Amino acid sequence: MRRIFNLFKKDVLLGIKDIFILLELAFAVVIMFMLLFIFPKEIKQDAMVYIYDQTGLIQNIIDQFAEKADIDMDMELFVDNREDMIAGMTKNKSAMGIIISYGEETLYETEMLVQPYTTKAMMKYVETEMEDMLSILHPPFGTYPLEIYNSVRITSLQEGLRDEIPFNKRVLPPIIMMMVGIIGMFAMVSLIGQERSDATIRAFRVTPAGLWGFIFSKHLMLMAVSIATFSILYIPVIGGFQGYLQALLIIMLTVIFGSTIGIILGSFFDNPMTSMGLVVLLMLVISLPAISLFAPVFSPLWLKFIPSYYTLFGLDAAMFPDNNAHIIWQSAAILGALDLVLVFLSAWIFSTRIRREA
Amino acid sequence: MRQLIQMFKFDVKTVFKSFMGGYIAIVPLLIIVVLRFFLPDMDSTTSTIAVVTEGSHAVRQEVIDELESFAKVIKYENIDDMEQKLRGTGSAEGLYWDPEKEQYVSVLERNIKANTIFSTGARMVRQYYVKANYPERTKTNTFTYGVPEELSDRSEVSPVATMGGSIYIMFMVFIGSFIIGLGIVNDKELGTNQALKITPLTKSEYFIGKSIFPFLIQLFYAIVALLILGLMHVNILQVYIVVLTSFGITLFIGLLIGALAHNENEAIGIGKLLGMLLMLSILGGTLLPDKWQWVVYWTPFYWVFDILEAVFTETGTWIDFIWKNAVMLGTTSLYFFLLRKPITKGLS
Questions:
Q1: Phi, psi (deg, nearest 5) at residue A106
Q2: Best to test chain A binding among B107, B109, B142, B168 (most A CBs inside 10 Å)
Q3: N or C: fewer beta carbons within 10 Å in chain B?
Q4: Local structure of residue A78 (DSSP, 8 states)
Q5: What percent of chain A has pLDDT over 70?
Q6: What are phi and psi of A74, to 5 degrees?
């Protein structure tokens, strides 16, 4: 234990000397201030669908519904003419427009203005939605035969809409993942590279601490730095310790994951420079699940094979509790199991490679 | 000029000797293939419906067929498994048949009390029911769609591909910086920079020589990105101008890494932190609405993203293109100016 502690002390001192630890801490402070004072808290997203309702039907119903349900539905989606709609679509490249008017052959006519890249599936979706909505809303009692309403009922797992999360808090999970979670991937590669070039790795083979002690102390050092940077970012931005321990658990498991990958890369590449391309590639792959976090409808199965998926959703569930505690434990279990395998695998690969080098 | 070419040759030789060359050739290609791989999934998604397909709660195949025409349908054996999907990550709706009440049940993750009618599943079921039981009923709505004349000159390539292309080129700018920075640090560690002092090579020739290889890599992969992401119809001259102007950022970050770091450890640490600027720019550029994007105006990466987005979606004018490039170069020069002392000191 004492040996490990001494090694840990040495790693921390070297980390401070190499300014690596100081840089991590300073940058965490800068990002924290940016999130608190520069990034907006409340943002109103640009409309995705503009509606020009010449019949006034939809606007009235939405107003009545909003009043009855006591919710704010000021979505800036209604426009007064086609020109405003085109202007909105020109500005927002993903936006579409719907013009509703009274029809000649049918009760209503709907013209959907799309972007050249709007998919057929989206058009079919809107067509189904408009037919159904207008069939229900047409005054006084809709156009559907009454029995149709009995063909389906709606239930839900939870009541009420999720509280609006401030934007600067919403972006915290990916920032923490990139800034803290994958610290090990970069750091381990360079720490091992440094020890290799100084030939200190070989010396460790004959010390009582051995190569396992060497790796263990580096894991400890990176976890200590991660706890500090994580706390600098988390506590002020979230505004307290809500979900702190759960989020810390998830991020520590991610740090271990990143560190083990760093050890494997460091074992195979003599020079950290040569492994950087691979690290950047992994960084890109690891950031992909963030798309699913911000656009939940994009959630293909293959995304779940990327470990950072569990980091992001685990952090999100810990930071913004919403009957989703099981996601935290599920994520922790998956990351934990993965870490268990990778810790031993990386240590085995590392010691085998180093012995061979000798 | 001869010295420059010699320096470039030396650089390429060193890079390929350490297998770095192989990685530079393969890794960006892998990155772009990864991007290409996930684009179709992004494009085809409108909503996800989890349906029960086994036992007494099974949804009829005809309803599933209708749903599949616009949504991603995931099949489950029972209600518990289906609800498990809804409780998990991502966003989805559920659908099953209730044999006792002889009606479908559309399950939402969350709902407000006042809504007893609207959900994607409920819409589909009602229309299926009408079609099956009232084949003669006229539709309530005539639906047409089309691209308005004013937007007809826009590219047909999805915003996902254009965004992916922009992010990829930004990554290449960053990789280029790493190559320059780590190359300088490597020379510092091996003492090559000292040896070069007694050669006719000037300092500027040394740095220019070090920059040629990453610049060529960026040029090459810009065209590879356009090819693989199906963006060859865009203005290639504009793309190359952006690669050229954004090389200012590559050079700045590369020199900064080279100047501040004394060894590869420090270089990687500094590089990783500067990578956060890249990430903030991507987050700001993709998630912030237009009126809030000023928040990330200070990072030159944001301007690369913004310019490339306009070039790939063919929505920008030459005037916009020029002033945005000027702002990008201006912000980069400002950082150069502010940090000129530590950079000069670190490199001397």
A1: -120, 170
A2: B142
A3: N
A4: B
A5: 89
A6: -80, 85
